[in-house]
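re: that complex we talked abt at group meeting.

here r the seqs, copy pasted straight from the sheet so there may be weird spacing, ignore it
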Amino acid sequence: KQEVTQIPAALSVPEGENLVLNCSFTDSAIYNLQWFRQDPGKGLTSLLLIQSSQREQTSGRLNASLDKSSGRSTLYIAASQPGDSATYLCAAPLNTGTASKLTFGTGTRLQVTL
Amino acid sequence: DTGVSQDPRHKITKRGQNVTFRCDPISEHNRLYWYRQTLGQGPEFLTYFQNEAQLEKSRLLSDRFSAERPKGSFSTLEIQRTEQGDSAMYLCASSRIGATYNEQFFGPGTRLTVL
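got the structure back, here u go
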């Protein structure tokens, strides 16, 4: 059974800082690794998806890395802005040959202050 | 492409009542997933459909829960005899067979409160 852990559970940084969110998973036989953003009371927005054979993906100020052997992924946010305040979730579905149901961590709640 | 939609967005009910939620996936998406998210937790998988066939159910899906996807289009999730522990956000996602990485796209969710 896949278990996903995210550290820290909450983070508060001043605007402009660079920051790193961590995600670890117990089973390295993953199909891919996805990072999502969730605003309070809302659904999930996909940020980045890293295929199991890839090491990193970039989108704007976001960069996600994947190290399958150590069971870790990081999400790097550059030059943080108050609009980045949200909960960030990672999901590491197992490569079971089926539809790859997502197994989520509990998330990191980020607050970017002025 | 209008995205995944869910209805209603919020539902308040009394314990013991039945509730039904609807999810409309992105058109041409063959797979549809239901997840449940309680406060402070990540979403947990409940069940998924490929076209109209329900192919997997989590042990979280007790016999009070039933999901359908008639004709392989929209899906409904019904909870019978609701309990306070059913209070959660119910999220729906869809994906397309053969799409790159089987990326799932989520709807806005239905927030259920059981009094």
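couple things i noticed - The two ends of chain B are 36 Å apart (CA to CA). Chain B has no helices and eleven strands.
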